[in-house]
From TrEMBL:
<dbReference type="InterPro" id="IPR011060">
    <property type="entry name" value="RibuloseP-bd_barrel"/>
</dbReference>
<feature type="active site" description="Proton acceptor">
    <location>
        <position position="17"/>
    </location>
</feature>
<dbReference type="InterPro" id="IPR023016">
    <property type="entry name" value="HisA/PriA"/>
</dbReference>
<keyword id="KW-0368">Histidine biosynthesis</keyword>
<dbReference type="GO" id="GO:0004640">
    <property type="term" value="F:phosphoribosylanthranilate isomerase activity"/>
</dbReference>
<dbReference type="InterPro" id="IPR010188">
    <property type="entry name" value="HisA/PriA_Actinobacteria"/>
</dbReference>
<keyword id="KW-0028">Amino-acid biosynthesis</keyword>
<dbReference type="GO" id="GO:0003949">
    <property type="term" value="F:1-(5-phosphoribosyl)-5-[(5-phosphoribosylamino)methylideneamino]imidazole-4-carboxamide isomerase activity"/>
</dbReference>
<comment type="pathway">
    <text>Amino-acid biosynthesis; L-histidine biosynthesis; L-histidine from 5-phospho-alpha-D-ribose 1-diphosphate: step 4/9.</text>
</comment>
<feature type="active site" description="Proton donor">
    <location>
        <position position="137"/>
    </location>
</feature>
<protein>
    <recommendedName>
        <fullName>1-(5-phosphoribosyl)-5-[(5-phosphoribosylamino)methylideneamino] imidazole-4-carboxamide isomerase</fullName>
        <ecNumber>5.3.1.16</ecNumber>
    </recommendedName>
</protein>
<keyword id="KW-0413">Isomerase</keyword>
<comment type="similarity">
    <text>Belongs to the HisA/HisF family.</text>
</comment>
<dbReference type="Pfam" id="PF00977">
    <property type="entry name" value="His_biosynth"/>
</dbReference>
<dbReference type="InterPro" id="IPR044524">
    <property type="entry name" value="Isoase_HisA-like"/>
</dbReference>
<keyword id="KW-0963">Cytoplasm</keyword>
<dbReference type="InterPro" id="IPR006062">
    <property type="entry name" value="His_biosynth"/>
</dbReference>
Length: 248
């Protein structure tokens, strides 16, 4: 136990995914698999009360190209004062990036745009540095683009390109695990940490406090944090319990 107590803390980012104005969870990122959990502001405030320092806030409608919850995103960010927000979903050009930057989010997560428009992504990374993270949604070693409906190229090819652009952080999701409560893809994360010195935020599959403990053991390798979603909403454990295991 002593060894574990000395492991650096894992930053937890409880997820608030918004579709049609409500907090929802998907299974394997598929549109149409939403389970609704009510008001996104209430969900975020509940996480803040339990001790969250970060929240991962996703506009699913914008990610799927079927609308926008921009007003609700801004409201969530304003309400959870003192908690930093990583904002994701549909940020793929100067206009959507500007709106995201002006929302008060501490960090912007680029997804599809980084794959489909690498020159623009490289320019944004160069301009905004640490404010920009790139989400890499992975099936095996193939990237999934635009709401996970299309393939976006080879993971390692894209990673090399983003490294050259100076990307400061990666949010890595194993699409096959996301929303399934089957445990995180530790092998993928280990391989990622071997290929980049940049911090990695793990996403997808966390189902138990043991999973959080396993991810915390990867912190010395370069896994900085973990996004936790469905397990919290399904009541597998509380955020307070998870933060305790993560070393908060």
């Amino acid at each position: 136990m002593n060894d574990f107590a000395s492991t650096p803390e894992l930053i937890l980012l409880p997820a608030v995914d918004v579709a049609d104005g409500k907090a929802v969870r998907l299974t394997q990122g598929e549109a149409g698999t939403e389970t609704s959990y009510g008001d996104p502001v209430d969900a975020a405030l509940d996480f803040a009360r339990q001790g969250a320092r970060w929240i991962h806030l996703v506009d699913l409608d914008a990610a799927f190209g079927r609308g926008s919850n921009a007003g609700i995103m801004r409201k969530v960010i304003k309400q959870v004062r003192g908690v930093q927000v990583e904002l994701s979903g549909g940020i793929r050009d100067d206009r959507t990036l500007q709106a995201a930057l002006e929302s008060g989010a501490a960090r912007i997560n680029l997804g599809t745009a980084a794959l489909e428009n690498p020159e623009w992504a490289a320019d944004v990374i160069g301009r905004y540095g640490d404010v920009i993270a790139v989400g890499l949604d992975v099936r095996g070693t193939t990237l999934a683009a635009r709401g996970w409906t299309r393939e976006g190229g080879d993971l390692w090819t894209v990673l090399d390109r983003l490294e050259s652009a100076g990307c400061s952080r990666y949010v890595v999701t194993d699409v096959t695990k996301d929303g399934t409560l089957q445990g995180p893809n530790v092998e993928l994360l280990r391989e990622m940490t071997a290929r980049t010195p940049k911090p990695i935020v793990a996403s997808g599959g966390v189902s138990s406090l043991d999973d959080i403990a396993a991810l915390r053991e990867l912190v010395p390798l370069g896994v900085e944090g973990a996004i936790v979603g469905k397990a919290l909403y399904a009541g597998a454990f509380t955020l307070a319990e998870a933060l305790d295991v993560a070393g908060h």
